[in-house]
Design brief:
Blueprint lengths: L7 H16 L13 E3 L5 E3 H11 L16 E3 L6 E3 L12 H14 L3 H7 L13 E3 L4 E3 L1 H5 L8 E3 H109 L4 H19 L22 H8 L8 H14 L28
Antiparallel strand pairs: 1-2, 3-4, 5-6, 5-7
C-alpha cells in the first residue's frame, strides 16, 4: 500500500530546516543565537552575552578597571577557529552586529511555528480509499492502513491497533535498539583499543627481548674470547719454555764443538813438529786433553716427540653442538632478567671459569676444554 504520495517534499523541507537550525547554534551556549548577534573579525558569530562571557574570562580585570576610563580593550580567541580577537575600549560592545543572522533567526522561528507535522499527516492518505487517512496499524500484515480497510477492505479479518500506540512502541523499540547498538559499538571500540595496546606491548616486549638476546650472545662471545686468549697464552708459555731449553742445549753443544775443534787443531799442529824432544814436551798434555775431551758427557738431547705441541689441541665440536641447542625458554623471562643482572655484575671481576653461557645447557660445566700441559 502506497501512502507516501506527496510526503517527500515536506520531509525535504523539514530536513532543510534542521540543517538551517544547526547553522544558527552558538558554539558557546549551544543554543540558537540570541539577539543581538555579533560578528567577529574571523566571520564567526556569537551571542553578545556569550562573547562577553568569553571576553570576561580572558580579561578578568577589565570590568574592575571601569569601561568609561579604559583607553584600550582586551583580547580573546574565537571559540570556533581560535583566531585572536582584539577589542577596543568598548569591549564586546564595539563588535559589529550581524543583522543578516538576526533576520534569518526571525524567519526560522516564524517557519518553525507552523504545524509541519499536521500537514504531513494530511498527506498520509489510503491508496484504496483516497478520502481516508491512515490512522490504524494492521498487526497481522504489519502495515499502516485506514479504518475502511479494516471494516470492508483487505484487513477486515486482521488484528489492528491505533497508529499512535504502534508508533510509540516501535519508536521505543528502535531507540532501545540504537542504544544497544551504540553500547555494542563502544564495546567493540574498547576491544580495538585494547588490542592496539596489546600490539604496542608486543612491540615493546619484542624490542626488549631482542636487546637481552644481543646482550646474552655478546656475553658468550666475551667468554669465548677470554678463554681463547688464556689458551693462547698457555701455548705461548710452553713454546717459550721448550725453545729456551733446546736453545740452551744448542749453545752447550756449540761451545763443546768449538773447544773440541780448537783442540784438534792444536793436536794436528803438534804432530807436524819435526823435533822429537819438542814434540814430547807437548804431546803428554795434548794426549790428556784429547782423552778428557772425548770423555766429556753432554747434557743430552730432547726426548723423542719433545717438539710436538699436540697436547694443546682443543676440541670444540661438542661445544659447537651445544651452542646449536640454545633456544628460548617460555615463561622464564623473570629468571632471565635476574641472570642478566648477575652476569652484568660479574663480568668485571669473575674469571672465565666462573662464568657460564646462558641457555638450555647452563647447568653443565664450562664447555671450553682446558689445555693439557705436559
Amino acid at each position: 500500500m502506497n501512502f507516501t504520495v506527496g510526503f517527500k517534499p515536506l520531509l525535504g523541507d523539514a530536513h532543510s530546516m534542521d540543517n538551517l537550525e544547526k547553522q544558527l547554534i552558538c558554539p558557546i551556549c549551544l543554543e540558537m543565537f540570541s539577539k543581538p548577534v555579533v560578528i567577529l573579525p574571523c566571520q564567526h558569530n556569537l551571542c553578545r552575552k556569550c562573547a562577553n562571557d568569553v571576553f570576561q574570562a580572558s580579561n578578568p580585570l577589565w570590568q574592575s578597571r571601569g569601561s568609561t576610563t579604559v583607553s584600550s580593550g582586551g583580547r580573546f580567541r574565537c571559540p570556533s577557529c581560535r583566531h585572536e580577537v582584539v577589542l577596543d575600549r568598548h569591549g564586546v560592545y564595539g563588535l559589529q552586529r550581524n543583522l543578516l543572522v538576526e533576520n534569518i533567526i526571525d524567519i526560522y522561528k516564524q517557519e518553525s511555528s507552523r504545524p509541519l507535522h499536521s500537514k504531513a499527516e494530511q498527506h498520509l492518505m489510503c491508496e484504496e480509499h483516497e478520502e481516508e487517512k491512515i490512522n490504524i496499524y494492521c498487526l497481522s500484515c504489519e502495515v499502516p492502513t485506514c479504518s475502511l480497510c479494516k471494516v470492508f477492505g483487505a484487513h477486515k479479518d486482521c488484528e489492528v491497533a491505533p497508529l499512535p500506540t504502534i508508533y510509540k512502541r516501535q519508536k521505543s523499540e528502535l531507540s532501545d535498539g540504537i542504544a544497544m547498538l551504540v553500547a555494542g559499538n563502544d564495546r567493540v571500540q574498547a576491544v580495538i583499543t585494547q588490542m592496539e595496546e596489546v600490539c604496542q606491548t608486543i612491540e615493546d616486549n619484542s624490542r626488549r627481548q631482542k636487546q637481552l638476546l644481543n646482550q646474552r650472545f655478546e656475553a658468550l662471545c666475551s667468554v669465548l674470547e677470554e678463554r681463547k686468549a688464556e689458551l693462547l697464552q698457555a701455548l705461548a708459555r710452553e713454546q717459550e719454555e721448550k725453545l729456551q731449553r733446546v736453545r740452551g742445549l744448542i749453545r752447550q753443544y756449540g761451545d763443546h764443538l768449538e773447544a773440541s775443534s780448537k783442540l784438534v787443531e792444536s793436536a794436528i799442529q803438534s804432530m807436524e813438529e819435526p823435533q822429537m824432544a819438542l814434540y814430547l814436551q807437548q804431546a803428554k798434555e795434548l794426549i790428556n786433553k784429547v782423552g778428557t775431551m772425548s770423555k766429556v758427557e753432554l747434557a743430552g738431547r730432547p726426548e723423542p716427540g719433545y717438539e710436538s705441541m699436540e697436547q694443546f689441541t682443543v676440541s670444540v665440536e661438542h661445544v659447537a653442538e651445544m651452542l646449536r641447542t640454545i633456544d628460548f625458554q617460555p615463561g622464564a623471562s623473570g629468571e632471565e632478567e635476574d641472570e642478566e643482572v648477575a652476569l652484568d655484575g660479574e663480568e668485571g671481576s669473575a674469571g672465565p671459569e666462573e662464568e657460564r653461557p646462558d641457555g638450555p645447557e647452563g647447568d653443565h660445566e664450562s664447555p671450553l676444554p682446558a689445555y693439557d700441559s705436559q
